[in-house]
Amino acid sequence: MSSPAPKQVLILGGSFAGLTAAYELKRLLKDRVQVTVVDKNDRFMFIPSLVWVPFGWRDPEQISFPLRPACERKGIEFRQATALAIDAAQQHVEIAEVGTPDRKETLRYDYLLIATGPHVQFDIVPGVGPHGGYTESICTAEHALQAREAWQRFLQDPGPVIVGATQGSSCYGAAYEFIFNLEYALRRAKLRDRVTITYVTSEPFLGHFGIGGLKHAQGMTEWFFRHVGLDWVLNAVLERVTPGLVHFRSGQLFTTKDDKKGVDLAGQTLPFKYGMLIPPFLGAEVVRRSGLGNERGFVVTDEYFRHLKYPNIFAAGVAVAVAPPAPCEAGCSVPKTGYISEVMAHTAAANIAASIEGKPLTPKPQADIDAKCILDAGNQGIIMYTDRIYAPQQRRWQTLIPGPWAHWAKLLFEKYFLWKMRTGRVNWP
Ligand SMILES: Cc1cc2nc3c(=O)[nH]c(=O)nc-3n(C[C@H](O)[C@H](O)[C@H](O)COP(=O)(O)OP(=O)(O)OC[C@H]3O[C@@H](n4cnc5c(N)ncnc54)[C@H](O)[C@@H]3O)c2cc1C
Asked: Nearest to residue 55, comparing CAs of 163, 144, 164, 177?
């Protein structure tokens, strides 16, 4: 008797979540599954190192590798294309070849994994972002290279700097890493005494990170801000950004000289010569267009990372909806880091494999997800661990280890992770 035809698994997105799930499925089911990864980009990018690109400490080629050969070595088909629409009832996805958008094609699937990450919502505040705005971004390699050009111009004629995350943001870790690295870069360039640096955030306190903080995070972050002379604005809601000025609807400014009571910034402005602000994320356009997400375009899943209505659609990574675990007056969203994206991808892949094989699925409630993270500060940093990132009340472990080893750990991790993803060893730690 011949064996049944392999099931078709289509994965939208070939980054932390999508590529991890593709390798894992192939490892689990071998020839019993046909895996296709669709991504509009042809390279896997180690996004956490984009914070170093503006300062010239990394080029995008050093922190990325081509997806096609990596996939093909493991028997995975790779298509460089944009997914345009998902038809969940008919079980197919319309794609368009990158470069020839008129060449459309329909890909059929038995199982679909949505791992399309975020759409960066620059228009949350007029004047934010590199597309017609006045602030830089580090969310993509292209943005980070643009931020590098602006940085080179800034070094010739320095002035005040504003770095942070707008109302509704979720990516505070990257904003902290960027401001600490920028401060370090100015010290190396012997320009630090000519520049005031202000961190602008919708967080209610430093070290909140959109998750209510970790034990000792607030004290440690405030200490570090004072130590290196950074000012900060909390509960910031921005009205708009005009050339050289950030306009505040609300926010309280704390300076290193007088950080006890904040200065009310409602209706006020702060000047800048170099600005980098991270806006909120929405779900990817294809998800929003296909009506498979919530009001922000994120996919609501059950504890198997399965769509609530379509049991053959799964989601992983930033594409998944996660409820905010901590209040935040100015609007904070929840961070979904690379490690968390991998955890979700492993769970989704295991459950797709179990569905194909007719075996019981394994739950992974969001409250049980742990988090390991390195926050780099140029030549030092903090290694962070908690056993329950999205359930602050139930945490048993919250560990922060500051020191130069955090920076060395990120250097090592970058190399290790790129090797692991290029060679498909996603079941390694
Ligand atoms: C500047 C920055 C720094 C960060 N630093 C850290 C850090 O230090 N540590 C950490 O753990 N996390 C960090 N993160 C978060 C981390 O990058 C994310 O958690 C991770 O990238 C999420 O992976 P993902 O696969 O869900 O989404 P993404 O990495 O965003 O990938 C989504 C993929 O889907 C593709 N895609 C989207 N739409 C379509 C479409 N319609 N058709 C085809 N392809 C599509 C995209 O091209 C992309 O490759 C950082 C994020 C940023 C922005």
From this structure: 144
Per the structure, the count of domains in the chain is 2
* Structure-token pair, residue 170: 């979720």
The pLDDT of residue 56:
98
Q: Ligand 1: distance of its center to the CA of 260 in Å?
A: 37
What is the domain range of residue 93? 7-119+281-368
Q: What is the pLDDT of residue 325?
A: 86
Pairing of strands 269-271, 245-254: antiparallel
* Residue stretches of the chain with pLDDT short of 70: 1-2, 259
261 and 315: one domain? no
The catalytic residues are 171, 373
Question: Of the residues 42, 97, 116, 119, which should be mutated to test ligand 1's pocket, given the most ligand atoms within 8 Å of the CB?
Answer: 116
Cα–Cα dist 352/29, whole Å = 10
Written as one string, the DSSP assignment of 65-96 is EEHHHHHHHTT-EEEEEEEEEEETTTTEEEEE
